[in-house]
Predict the structure.
Amino acid sequence: MKNLPKRFKHRKVQKGSLRGNATRGHTVEFGEWGLQALEPGWISARVIEAGRVAANRAAPGSRITIRIFPQKPITSIPAETRMGKGKGEPEYWAAAVKPGTVIYEIGGTTEGAAKLAMNRVAHKLPLRCRLVKRRTR
Amino acid sequence: MSTTPVLKAEARDTTGSAGSRRARANGSIPGNIYGHGQGNMNVLLNAHDLELALAGPSQLFTLQLSGGDESVLVKEVQYDTFGQRVLHVDFARIDLGEEVHVEVQVEYRGTPKGVAEGGDAITLHPTLSVKCRADSIPDVIIVDVSELAIGEQLHANELKLPAGVKIDPEHIDEGEPLFAVAAPKAEEPAEDAEGEDDAAADGDAPKAEGDKPKGDDGEG
């Protein structure tokens, strides 16, 4: 499953800011448990996919929902390059995640399997996370 | 039905974000009471007492105000980004004898037969919209799903609800499936491996032709 933008307005964008907490996407909406970010950071498309695969292998048959999308092109310049000559070339896509964002959701499985799967996923992510349960009130 | 929590509330003069922030810093939670043709009333509640009461199963509260006690129903609770601190709470005035619409948690008990055969249990509705008298709101509706086989579903009209409690047809159809046991998905290890290979091969880098405002993939 490719998780990349189909089209985009600009090949290169500025770094942007991850200041503050998430004001949207911070509640569990689709599954029964979710993995919530506790730190800001960029999560690359490759890591998002690795997390999905890890969750599917840890809890086969469960319903995994990915709540973030890698919309941000990240550029880099080659090693041993002199200063200047403009911005580097796009290398990969990433999702900008603010603290509080629910990154993955899982449902249709037992609590133990969900915790195991989300723990496996959390170890692949470049930021601290925690498991949250869907709130009924 | 559990006992109704009793909370002390005092009228609140300050409104707006600054006043609410000061109130939260002093250990209070701002809230509103409305309904029954009377005006809106801004109140302050003790944060600790309110959070303890909200952690319980009851949806019906009694508020002790200077003008007397009022029975209220929790309509909305606002939490902070991390879902840990209560920021604001809305209450609706009710008469204990009137019929109200509430969302009640459904607890699915037992391991379905179909799960033992390899099926997947899917909870479609963790809560159920019901209508009942305000003084007889159930804390939880317990359903036994141990007899469900693969491909079977539990529908809303198959539930045995407590006396005086009925499904609210405005919010949920009577034939709506609440819980299902689905056939196991075919395992696709090849798909997983392929996905990883794709990501590695593509390097996920934005391609130059995507520069155009509209791509030509024909899917959008």
In short: Chain A is about 20% helix and 30% strand.
